[in-house]
Write a structure and sequence with these properties.
single chain; alpha+beta; putative xylanase like fold; six-stranded antiparallel β-sheet; 4 helices; 6 strands; 25% helix
């Protein structure tokens, strides 16, 4: 986000916030994250749990994560609970996560996260 602050009105109006986000991004870039290409998502669905954080990666230049949401297991498949810009509200995807990713050409895969403890 920090390399594209002009694309976000709230960040464009607040350069200090953009700088802080840049610092968070530097910390995140030090983490060992596992990228799963969209063609492989179906193969790893049994490792994903309801509540896992799903970060959808993209091919778009200078943008790593295009969208985020939470995994929701329904009928032994992973669906995405997310804020839909199209629906203007929080929704559960109509199709399993793998199918959702395949349908959208700019999405390259996912990075998952799981909160440990409370």
């Amino acid at each position: 986000m920090s390399t594209n602050c002009d694309a976000y009105p709230a960040l464009k109006a607040n350069p200090e916030l953009c700088r802080q986000i840049g610092n968070f991004e530097k910390d995140i870039n030090k983490l060992n994250l596992c990228y799963i290409p969209k063609a492989q998502v179906r193969n790893v669905e049994t490792s994903i749990l309801t509540g896992d954080i799903i970060a959808i990666t993209t091919h778009i230049n200078r943008l790593d994560i295009a969208h985020t949401g939470f995994a929701l297991i329904q009928n032994e498949r992973v669906y995405l609970l997310h804020a839909s810009s199209e629906a203007q509200k929080v929704v559960v995807s109509d199709e399993p996560l793998h199918d959702y990713l395949v349908r959208l050409r700019n999405h390259s895969g996912i990075i998952t996260g799981r909160v440990n403890g409370y």
